[in-house]
């Protein structure tokens, strides 16, 4: 059982994606509202942003802000930046398409920058598996955008 938890923490992005999709499925199953393409895409992306970006980057900020040793100014700044990314992810969960795009761009730049730094020999918290965040996130955003574009103005006003 401890090996399961070790793998879940080690592959935190994948774990948070699964948790977010499970919570979105539960929200869709228990909702009395009709489940059309736009609704499903919005709910999936909302829970994805809450779990993966919001909770995930709060965890990253905790890793930087609570090291247990003397405070390093760089670690402190990285921790506060991660709190900012988490806040944008949480707020973006209830925002429009533009806010959700911003909530995906910030962690994408962070992860790609961390992977470039890791390729140059710098230690980091992110690995290649963390590229699932932008891949899944932008796919869900594209699905929501396509579904929203195909609905009439009258139908969009009744969501």
Describe the structure.
With 159 residues, this protein is mainly α. The chain has seven helices and no strands. It has helices spanning 2-10, 12-30, 37-65, 73-92, 97-119, 132-149, 153-157. Helix 2 packs antiparallel against helix 3 and helix 3 (37-65) packs antiparallel against helix 6. The mean pLDDT is 85.
Structure described in brief:
With 159 residues, the chain is an all-alpha fold. The chain has helices spanning 2-10, 12-30, 37-65, 73-92, 97-119, 132-149, 153-157.
Kindly list the characteristics that best describe this protein.
7 helices; about 160 residues; mainly alpha
Present the secondary structure layout.
Blueprint: H1 2-10, H2 12-30, H3 37-65, H4 73-92, H5 97-119, H6 132-149, H7 153-157
Poorly predicted runs: none
Structural class: mainly alpha
The helix-strand sequence is HHHHHHH
Query: Into which percent range does the helicity of residues fall?
Result: over 70%
